[in-house]
Amino acid sequence: MNFLQQIFTNLARTPQKTALAEVVDGQLAAVSSTELLSNISQTRQALKKTGLKPGDRCALLAPNSNRWVAVDLAIMAEGGIVVPLYSRQAPGELVTLMKDCAPKLLVCSDEELRQSILSIWPQAPATLLYNDIFAESVPAADPEHLKNITPLLDDTPVTIIYTSGTSGDAKGVVLNVSNISFMVGRTTARLDELMATVSKQGDDRVFHYLPFCFAGSWILLLTCLYRSNALMMSTDRSKLADELRVAAPHYMLNVPALLDRIRSGVLGQLNKKGGIALAMFDRGQAAWRRSGKGNALDWIWRLLASSLVFPKIKKRLGPNLRSLICGSAPLAEETQLFFQMIGIPVLQVYGLTETTAICTMDDVDEYTAGRVGPAIPGIEMKLGENDEILVRGPNIFSGYWNRPEATAEVMTDGWFHTGDQGQVDDRGNWMIVGRLKSLIIPTSGHNISPEPIEQMILSALAETEQVMVVGNGRKFLSAIVTGNLAPERVRAALETVNRDLPHYKQVRKFHISPEPFTEENGLLTVMRKLKRAAIEGRYREEIGALYESEI
Known about the structure:
This protein is of the alpha/beta class and 551 residues long. The chain has three domains: 173 residues, ANL, N-terminal domain (Rossmann fold), CATH 3.40.50; 178 residues, ANL, N-terminal domain (Rossmann fold); 108 residues, ANL, C-terminal domain (GMP Synthetase, Chain A, domain 3, 2-Layer Sandwich). The protein has 20 helices and 23 strands. The strands form five sheets. It has an eight-stranded mixed β-sheet with strand order 2-1-10-9-11-12-13-14, with helices on both faces. Strands 15, 16, 18, 19 and 20 form a five-stranded antiparallel β-sheet that branches. A four-stranded parallel β-sheet has the order 4-3-5-6, sandwiched between helices. Helix 9 links the parallel strand 9 and strand 10. The longest helix is centred in the first third of the chain and has 18 residues. The chain is globular and about 70 Å long. The mean pLDDT is 90.
């Protein structure tokens, strides 16, 4: 039974069970299995009327919601290929993606989104709005009928997910039934392990805010449906803290930027409050870091902090939190250790869209801060030239949409070239060093990964969330730092960082940009990764000024 058949079987078997929930106006709005099946049935009827056939591509442009899930499952049940798109992405970029995959149909959540596309692309394909699909309520669909999905073979494509395009044009990654079935089985096993020791009644409490149009986010959604476990969805990212209090989850999927921001926020509040709480936290943290190496006084401070300070921080972040799961980019070791210290383990996963989102997963009971865990069972990983991570297994995509040459460039004898530099220890735990395409080669000839240096600067400079190191073809490295910062503060942070770096990795100069890197100004991907080429282009003059005296 493939992943889609299992999901439909689960929904049919538990008609009154909550399948999904949306956090709306401070409350959970639940959707039962029967209601989800009815929404799927309505969508399938609407898709049939458009003439959608097996193998046709159908673009889905909408924010997360229970309707998004119904449309996604309905397209796959009809044998269509889902092309999920990010509703907040610039219309021009969305049109470029759609022209690339040539969908037969576009499903939009509202008229505003449709008009944003038509204003740039009047020849856009036929469009269905949610109001067209869900205009009227219909009786609950016959579960047996809904289980009658279009036959899907292992190699049948079910989705085309576009990469974030940090270093070039986005490419459409084609994932098939076998890719998804394999990965959902592996994530199910790991989440079962995570929740094995949690005393609970009913489902795991899972909260989710990342857009479903990205591979890792979508895999979590499918895993919850596969496990017959309700997923609570954010509906307003500007109210994320309030939504978290309502959801009170056991775990959630995160990107490093949010966890870094939470840590900075906690430290900022403690510093602002001052007094005994701050003193106890500082001494307790220092003692915790020296665990096993300190003296009796350290033991006392650690005991006090662990009894009076750390639990209060944890309770404010989430009283039920069993773990935080983090992916999409390397997480700063200091941030991971912070959450571990207050009693919330952060388990990292590593993967790319081309690897069906995941290659490695931290072990639930034994993990190493700064590493992303071992390869999951059934997947092979090794180091290639320049310490590039190569991956082989049933999770590897079938190819880039309509780009055979690009596919051939990244595949060798079944091994996928990730483009990431890595390290692996004797226990098989992997560490991600950086992207090969991000390598900086100064005139000294050294190959330098900027990401570790950027993380060091971020740790030393809590006032900013963004740093990008530059210096390719130059005599030394410089950095662009965002925020309203005093130059003296940046200079002091760089002096601290440089003490632990060899001369060729030291950052000698910097430019402060009051404007942050954002999705809106085109300098961040939607997963909050730096668009390095775009940033260098935007700050070309400022970077040039840093090297004017270079001989």
